[in-house]
Amino acid sequence: MSDKPYRPNVGVALFNAQGRVFIARRFKDDGPEIVLPGLEWQMPQGGIDANEDPRKAVFRELWEETGVKSAEYLAETDWMTYEFPPYDGPPHRLAVFRGQRQKWFALRFTGNESEIDPLTPRNGQEPEFDQWRWEPLANVAALVVPFRKEIYQTVATEFAGFAK
User: Fold this and answer.
1) Which domains are present in the chain?
2) pLDDT (tens digit per residue) in 96-137
3) Residues 13-33, buried b or exposed e (16+ Cβ, 10 A)?
4) What integer is the mean pLDDT of 53-66?
5) What is the spatial distance between Cα 159 and Cα 155, in angstroms, rounded to a whole number?
6) pLDDT band at residue 87, thresholds of 50, 70 and 90?
7) What percent of the chain has pLDDT over 90?
8) What is the C-alpha separation between 97 and 5, in angstroms, rounded?
9) φ, ψ of residue 145 in degrees (nearest 5)
10) C-alpha distance from residue 34 to each of 9, 31, 84, 85, 88 (Å)
């Protein structure tokens, strides 16, 4: 077991009116968070700032990564963890963590798709995604890197009622 801590993190399952969930294609590795061919898709997620409430963090992260401000709270999970794959690359801000401790939120998208823009930097954060689409929630775990798969399966089970 690693003596490194988990990074506090939020994830968002953003549902449209048809019950599909927002996913985006990650176009580059980010330290220990690798991208594998064919498994580049994920839902938005990001770190919780010091003393930040997770509910505030999820809306901030959603906006930073997608441009979306029009969303309403539906539900949230308990805390879950996953381990990063082994990392021996150059120094990286995430290398001090063993993985992520996450709380996932189900949100309903209430805006117009024209506000979705993952390529514009916000809050000094570089874009992570170059494409996006709406996907059935049940399909998403098959599109992510292996170290996130179990979390995505749990999210799909817990939020299945919003996918209808």
Assistant:
1) 6-163 (3.90.79.10)
2) 899 999 999 999 999 999 999 999 999 998 899 999 999 999
3) bbbeeeebbbbbbbeeeebbb
4) 97
5) 6
6) confident
7) 83
8) 5
9) -60, 150
10) 17, 7, 9, 8, 12
